Predict the 3D structure of the following.
Amino acid sequence: MTDTYHIPAQLLANANRVVVFTGAGVSAESGIPTFRGRLSGLWERFEPSQLATPDAFMADPELVWGWYEWRRTLVCNAKPNAAHIAIAELAARVPRLTVVTQNVDDLHERAGSAGVLHLHGSLNAPRCFDCGASFPDAAMKPQEPDAGRRLAPPRCQHCSGMIRPGVVWFGESLPEQVFARAFEEASQCDLLLSIGTSGLVQPAAQIPALALAAGASVVHINPENVDSRMQNAYNLTGAAGEVMPELLRRAFSGSP
Ligand code: OAD
């Protein structure tokens, strides 16, 4: 039987610059729903055009704010899982590690990762829809809403505009500097671990391909097999919370 960990573990043990690129799947074992899972994916139950666009917010701010507050509550009540913890530990094992995430939760930070690049913004960074001022009470206590409960968004102190979630919505640009740094790191790394992402949302989805094109190796960590016919692309098939600790063990404990 082939040992699927052998090459990825060797690559990790020998890498100087590593990028960890994560999607919703890395937080799945913390109980945070992914977007596209057949059974529990958010976009199976909710319509993105009614919740995740600027037009949706203008049309029904209470619906949109309530939905994001529900998601923020889920995150506040969740804990980092073994994958987040292994990624944070990896920072001490490789010369340079950059964590790039599509996730709007803060579970990487709560596991101990520093300098995380959030391509799609953060649930903890609400700002004014009109003037862009950040909302002063970013650590506001979640109000325990349920998924469909409407909540009026707070008002901006400066211009009394509505406060919106600090996430990137469909049709909006990614934060320019964050995106530029992520691209730079991906194009200069030796190894990119792509963990728990369907790779369907652009432009974030270009990041693993960019690393491959620049000569890095890419390891996909996902319970579903990701197309890895490209040279230098590998699959570790399984849940991130199981695969990541095992990958670190294989790479750094000296066992084969
Ligand atoms: P998706 O929901 O599209 O994909 C989640 C991926 O995680 C799938 O490939 C699953 O097979 C995988 N997965 C599920 N459980 C896992 C586990 N325990 N361990 C590892 N992988 C697991 O989520 P993203 O790819 O993050 O954008 O979605 C990208 C973007 O689409 C999100 O950032 C969001 C969404 O619309 C915006 O909101 C702008």
Summary: The chain has a mean pLDDT of 92. The chain has two domains: 1-31+80-124+172-256, 33-77+127-164. The domain at 1-31+80-124+172-256 is CATH 3.40.50.1220 (Rossmann fold). Residues 23-25, 28-29, 34-36, 41, 52, 102, 120, 168, 196-198, 200-201, 221-224, 239-240 surround 2'-O-acetyl adenosine-5-diphosphoribose (CB under 6 Å).
